Amino acid sequence: MTDPTTAAPAAANEPASAAGATEPVAAPLVPGADPALYNEDIAPLPEKKRTWGWFEIFNVWSNDIQSLFGYTLAATLFVSYGLNGWAVFAGIMLAGVIIMFLCNLVGRPSVRYGIPYAVVARASLGVYGTQFPTMLRAITAVFWYGAQTYFASTAVALMITAVFGPGPDATFLGMSAVGWLSYAIVAVFQLALFARGMQWIGTFLNWAGPAVYVVMIALMAVIWWRAGGGLLAEIGTVFSGSEAQATEANGGVGAFFAVVGTMVAYFAAVVVNYGDFSRFVRSERSMKLGNLLGLPVSLAVFSFLALVITAGTGVLYGEALTNPSDIVEQVDNTALTVVAALTFFVATVGINLVANFIPPVYALANLAPRKINALTGGLITAAVGFVVGGLWVAFIEGIGIAAFVDTLGAVLAPLFGIIVADYYLLRRQRFDVKALYSSAPDGPYHYTRGWNLRAMAVFGAASVFSIAAVWVPALEFLSGFAWILGAALGAVLHWAIMRGKVREAVSAE
């Protein structure tokens, strides 16, 4: 099996090695390419190097779903909207179908041409303007990296507490001494693993995914056994919510679609740069099959386990617990605690490195290659992510997981709409690949000194609206739809403002 993580970072502009070593540059695959816009990592991938099948894509999604944050988000949705548990489950499934459709759209040009997200974005934002979405994706990833690092540290803290005891009660920024020790361990471990290379991370992901399912099934069995055989009958009522909740503006159909929107926003970062993965797939059919099995199907299994486990905790403990670490702690079985904590830790760390650490590392290296190599970029990412995660309990957690996810998703949403509308509606699914690597002023993707200022204005307007939908009280009823609205608005505005100009570029290709 081809390791799905050994190649993916190259799509995010990966230099020769994690240590920033310099290797001889091969003859360009795009003749006449501008050296400022071209290197081997972002060049069109030859067909012989596109070795992924459906399983590699499935594996990427499975590991992304199985993080501690992913579980906590799903469980939180079950208890936060006053909806029947099965209605929330259906909303999550619908989100999986939508994400699959979106990934099939944005992944197609990368499958066809073998080019990464940053190069695809050059067509709509300009050959130099592409630095903007690349860095925006990187900044978003740093926030995710910090959050996921914190969640991984809760598993380590649980393991330390189970073996050695809870330690001192004093806290700093909401975390105890054991919490800070665990957080530091995870931060250092992730940086060390990155330095070892992507093969090690790939090995992590390949065994962590199945291991998480084994632990979750075992945890569900224990919870189900303790809660009694009538648990399934209780699922529909445990999360039914109060009558008052159901009549609020956020209730009913609105709450259902808010669940859908929040789950879509959770995957927004990976969706936007999905071409970094799909460029390695042998065929579009393999990509679509991997998306089908890895999104709706895998998400259904994971969400069902989360539904049953969370419902069981509500029956057993009088409170629905949303963090797997808290649930395992309540089970009061030291062996299960250690195994489960270690498994969730590994799963969260693995996907955190691939989805949230690698993009900013190589975006920084690509931004200033003479001053920042991969190792320096890794240190910067780790430092900023450490601050973000360290502030999670004291500050960020206060805004709520759903608001955190919706906000980050709202920032990226217009980029997706712009890229998709540009490729399908304006360029009729055709790129001039040579021009994507050219800085010639008369090139179809040069615009104004390499920047498409119209597209930038569209992004600004659409992102202001989508972010306002999360935070402005008058637009609160739209908060769960921020990502979808932002993407749609970006697509419509870009099509309206660029259609005449882009048609000329298409005819010249």
From TrEMBL:
Belongs to the purine-cytosine permease (2.A.39) family. The chain crosses the membrane at residues 86-107, 142-164, 170-192, 204-225, 253-272, 293-318, 338-362, 374-395, 401-426, 455-474, 480-497. This is NCS1 family nucleobase:cation symporter-1. PANTHER family: NCS1 FAMILY NUCLEOBASE:CATION SYMPORTER-1, NCS1 FAMILY PURINE/PYRIMIDINE TRANSPORTER. The lineage of its organism: Bacteria, Bacillati, Actinomycetota, Actinomycetes, Streptosporangiales. It holds the Pfam family Transp_cyt_pur. Keywords: Membrane, Transmembrane, Transmembrane helix. The keyword Amino-acid biosynthesis does not apply. InterPro entries: Pur-cyt_permease, Uracil/uridine/allantoin_perm. The keyword Nucleus does not apply. It comes from the Bacteria. It is a multi-pass membrane protein. It is found in: Membrane. Residues 1-20 are annotated as: Disordered. It comes from Nocardiopsis suaedae.
